[in-house]
What does this fold into?
Amino acid sequence: MRMHLVNGKIYQGAGQFVQALAIEDGVIVAAGSVEDLGTVAEEVVDLQGRCVLPGLNDSHMHLVDTGFAKTSCDLSGARSISDVITLGRKYLEDNSDTVLLRGRGWNHDNLVEKRLINRHDLDQISKTVPILFVRACGNISAANSAVIDTLGIASDTVIPGGDFQRDETGRCNGVFFGDATTWLQARLLEDSEDEIADAMIRVAEYAASRGLTSVQSNDVLNENADTMFSVLHKVGKHLPVRCSVQFGQQDLRELKRYFSEEFLNEDVYDERVLRRGSLKLFKDGALGVRTAEIEGGYADDPQNTGFERLTEEEHYELTKLAHDHGVPVVTHAIGDKAIRAVLNNYVREIGRASCRERV
It folds into this structure.
């Protein structure tokens, strides 16, 4: 189908505008005067002098997480731990059928106590309903005793790429960091594929309503890869925005499986609406919660050098494999030690790979 937009002010660059635009099967094919458009169109829209701008691109987001956040407990307005407790209790009062209370948006830097939320705080909301509250950065989460007991988390429990704080007795105090949040979610959440698809579509529609026409979304992780790929097979081509799928396999075996299976699925990824995007890796944590890797440690805590989610060599092997398939790498690296390691690996690949990398 061919559509013409006429009598408008169509942006072409700084100080440059034309009057008309031709779109054929969803692709802009011509811009200029009405005469320049040529072929007769099935639909003509008179803009009546309105301005037309290019759609916006979101270079990094999470469609699924954002979708579920809109229906979970919003903690962004909390200014004290008491506020967090009040918001959690209010949510349970309003949603009595809640089997897992999840929330996001708290930031201990904004709390008067200036400390992380722990299980003792969340137990004041409920000791029976599992609670998982994720910090605004996504690198730290807090869980109550019901979560710890349900999952049987002991002092020696190993979480790949993540860990948790322990109290003076060695017991988990409910503060988790690194990949522990996704580890917890994979074991606590039982979202169906339909619920995940609804969350994804709901946020994509919201993004489109605000002028976004393309997004680069990081929703595929080690823990949920098979489920997410199944969802993408169902709804990927029907999203109202173009979506470049950032995949986040931090495990070399899982990444090899991706390249030998999902990556080859030409029927799903048409590279127009749904694209195979970058590999998203995490080298360290965040400064606000002191899990960013810092050379020599933090000024007031020199023994703490941060949390290493991938060793430098593990990061290189994943980067190299991605480059073998022509895929660029995007790495979360906050501390100077982490940034240096990532840049070292990117430099090692200069001349062998032509991908555009990001830190």
Remarks:
- The CA atoms of residues 89 and 125 lie 5 Å apart.
- The domain at 63-188 is CATH 3.10.310.70 (Diaminopimelate Epimerase; Chain A, domain 1).
- The chain has three domains: 2-54, 63-188, 193-348.
- The chain is about 30% helix and 25% strand.
